Amino acid sequence: MQRSQQQQQGQGSPPPSASSCKRPRTAMKPLPPAHLAALRGRYELVSVRGQGSFSEVWEARHLRTGLRVAIKILCHAKMRAAKLKPEREPRVMRLLSLGRHPHVARFYEAIRPAAAGDNQYTYIVMELAESGELHDHVAVRERLPEAEARRIFQQLAAAVAYCHRNRVAHRDLKMENVLLDAEGSVKIADFGFSKLWSPGKMQSRSLGSPEYAAPELLEGRSYRGPEVDVWSCGVILYAMLCGRYPFDGADMSDLARNIRRGEFRLPSWVSDDARDLISSMLIVRPEKRATLAEVTAHRWLQPDMPPHLAMPPPDATAAAARQGVNAATVELLVTRHGFERTSLLQSIRLDDGSEEAVAYQLVLSKQHDAATLYQLSMPPPPPPHGRHQWALDGGELVLRECPRETMRRVAKALGELGVRILFYHSHRHRHRMVCAHVRAAGGGGVPTAAIIHSFIRRHKDCGGSSSSSGAATATATDDDTAAVESLSAAAVFFEIQLLKAGEGNGNSNSQQHQYVLHLKRTSGPQIPYLRVCAQLASKLKSNPY
């Protein structure tokens, strides 16, 4: 993709300085009686975290468990005056929270007390992001190093891709709506302008902040939704790397004119790959603008990409159906917080928004990190002959090259990753490897050889009868029991098969020069396996031929 008009030097509109933009936590102020009545017995408001045109956000404490949350208080009168629907944000957040994405702020419940007239509020209880806004984080440091900006943008792009996978366009992405938790991880929030979209339906309303607005919004043209989020992501990445916005203007009309032109400059310290990515997102014509799939696959984002973010985002509703009840969390709620077990289990299964269901989600989030919960809701591996470009944990890579050359490159890449090839066999169009990745020191003090030998004895078919599998006939060590016990923590075993595309479905004649590389985990923990898959995919994609 060609770059937009850009120069080596130059600067756009600077964001506010650190001193002017830093918004410390506001001191406790008198609470309106309506808020006290709505939250009595459930939450204690602690302090104001932020204020907007239609709402304010408080830090609060969940009284039954003592856990900290954020409560966004929406004023219905102000929202209706701006022709916004108060019920939209909690509805969208509830949908997105079903999939437990680690970089979308978790939704816990929405409280809508009955009120007369215009004195009506909705209280959205959600995950607390202790470190505040990305805007303040960047302003204090003026700009971010590329490594840190890459980590943040990996999380942001994955979260936006998850929203788009579930037909949600945010439409107000900006650094003020990208929050950071205590560990510095991204949490997308503020879905007040969001919209459920469909491929054939166009939107026309102009929303969001002018500095982040796509040209089609400023021109009043119709749009679907995802493409305006891509533009906003490009502005955010530019601001992180450059410490200023890409477009400047003496007033709003001048700013809008410069955005519609799409002309911006990048400082000399921005790397070539980062330039290419930013330029692919800040393209005036939305049909030529990069999609989120192209953004997340861009080479600048690949170094140190977490495996769970490299996986295709799941459907939120389907992900929720795969989630079981966590027994440890239930036990804690019963023994420590006094919940009745039968009622608790029923509420969890119904996800009815009751006090029990909310407490379960709060404690579950506290007990397990967000990435782990997200991976537990991931879909099963796709069918082995699907036509995916790349999908981890049973994923595939479609290739057009000599199969033996492909396996040679795979073997080389595996060697660079420290993966051992235990067995290799080829027959006609089928090529098969059995591989092992063991931590340098084995596990629990057990030698690596013992772990591998133990696996081979437990999987007699891994080498078949082929004499090429020398490891299959190795003599067992006396540490077999210990090796078996350490296997799940120390080693990952997986198979790689290269098959002719179309085998088994009658399409081989039309795809005679295509081959599918298929991976399957045989034994061992999932997360290290996903890490190896992501690293292997990155190596093969960066050197495709």
UniProtKB/TrEMBL annotation:
Residues 1-29 are annotated as: Disordered. The keyword Lipoprotein does not apply. Coiled coil: none annotated. Its cofactor is Mn(2+). GO terms for cellular component: cytoplasm. Residues 485-542 form the KA1 domain. It comes from the Eukaryota. One of its GO terms (biological process) is intracellular signal transduction. One of its GO terms (molecular function) is ATP binding. Residues 1-12 have a biased composition (Low complexity). CIPK serine-threonine protein kinases interact with CBL proteins. Binding of a CBL protein to the regulatory NAF domain of CIPK protein lead to the activation of the kinase in a calcium-dependent manner. This is Non-specific serine/threonine protein kinase.
